[in-house]
Amino acid sequence: MPDSPDTAASDPTPAEPAATDAPSTESQASVEQTTPAPDKIKTLPKENPYYWGTGRRKAAVARVRIRPGTGKFIVNKREVDAFFCIDKDRKAVRTPLNVSGTTKAVDVFVNVGGGGISGQAGAVVLGLARALVKANADYEPLLRAKRLLRRDPRRVERKKYGQRGARRRFQFSKR
Q1: pLDDT band at residue 120 under the 50/70/90 scheme
Q2: Could you give the domains of the chain?
Q3: Measured between alpha carbons, how far is 14 from 90 in angstroms, rounded to an integer?
Q4: What DSSP string describes 135-155?
């Protein structure tokens, strides 16, 4: 009697736990796929052992090189904490490494120039994110979700003639 109510009720019951187990394993698999392991950054030949990324922000340009290593972070031949004195900038330049989980897995070497300190920090962030994507394409969705692969197009607006600045006018005198 396969159509009896007892067997019909008992059949879906074992299927339900199997159905609930499947999504949890799928969600665990998707979590593993979204956070790639740091050892996925492969070493390059000795002729050129670096992954390069270029970042720009305002008037600053950063040339970023990364290689598998121990977590060294050098900016213009100085430690990153010695170069960037403001906490906001220190945290910002480490954001791509924290998002990808490669803080202790790569050595970062940066040459940055032009603009001011905040612009240089933004340029380093973009250059580092681009270099990480070249090293491992699995990092791209993570970095793109945090908007780290987008160049900030904002620039300083030019000063206009007949005004004190870009928008500020001279003080008005009625007489």
Answers
A1: very high
A2: 41-145 (3.30.230.10)
A3: 54
A4: H-GGGHHHHHHTT-SS-----
